[in-house]
Amino acid sequence: MKEKRKALGCDFNRGDSAKDVLLFVLPLVLTGLFQQGYSLLNTAVISRYLDASAIAVRGSLGTLSAIQSYLALGVTTGFVVFLNRCYGQGDPLLYRRSMTGSCLLVGGLLVLSLILAGGVEGLLALVNMPGELWEEGRAYLAVLLFGTAFTGMKNLLLGAVQGMGHVRIFGMVSILGTMSNTGILLLLLNGGYRKVSAMPLAALCNDSGIILFLSIFLVIFRRTHVQPVGISQIPADIFYELLKSGGSKSAMMILAGIGGIFMQRARNTLGTAAIAGYSYADTLSNFFLVPISAIASMAGIAAARNRGRQDYDSLWFYARNCLRWSLGFSGTAMAAAFGLGIPFLEILSGGADQETIQAGYLWLCICIPAFSGLGSAMICRNSLQAMGDYGKLLCLGVIEMGITVWFALGLVPHW
Fold this sequence. Notes:
84% of the residues lie in helices and 0% in strands.
């Protein structure tokens, strides 16, 4: 058994050693920290080229940006789950049909994003965006929405590459893609495009390059699995399974995002300094959240493997330990945020005024203590999805939406 675990990595049962678990979760944490570190760098770069009102545009559209991400990543992550199942069956034709079906559905996302991009003014009104930010906000949101399908296709191809076992290519593209995004952003800003919409435009260009690279890689090394088939050769049940797998998680995330719209409307009544402070605090809190997200991912994988082999003892063993580890990291993040939050925000903002820094610190003091509950919710979500319990997954989305609405209506007005 020891030899088998060594060959396969962490086996997610009670026999796993601490080293097995660490070797699995550490790369996830390091990759996530690297990506979030570059996200912090992006924000710092923007802060040195643009004023606080531009950062406020980004902060005031944070919820719509999150919903766009939920739509692109939630749906395509579900597609990847189904593709991995097909790959495990060892049937290249089934995989080709499923991959072609996935790409066609991502094409549907492109049509939807174009429709949404044409109605950005209604969306700006929906989140109660301050009038003085509308001009920049209109361009930022239009580019962001147009990029939805590109983000989804990138995620689909990355997941396919990872599922086929090309983990080094997956890691290399993830890291280099994060770096190239910053490089493109600097080129735009130094080239005279000094607008906050440079951020989603850089991401759109970067995603396009990653899609091209991964497509070429898959055609060269996995042609038998990715060669397209005619739509008439794709059975209806493949589309049904793809939609069921992709729709469940995105629906849960969008439900949570609806609650976020209430929160966004409440935040957007607080003034430019508070909105900009939130944007800095949100970027910093995402950095602190990385280890908890990695633990939640591990919980989902452990639940799926142990559910498949009916080992419920190991399933609950991992669930309990993941909850404990998540709470431990939450406490560490809280201590770091309270003790070092203001210096971090000053560095991140490039020396913003004290009103913005204090607003950001107050947001940190509210958000970081909630990590204990958020980490537990993430572990429950991933475990339920892995076990195929989609009904409870949607119930969690409804509960999260209710909590966010209550928070927006009850606490933010007393800011």
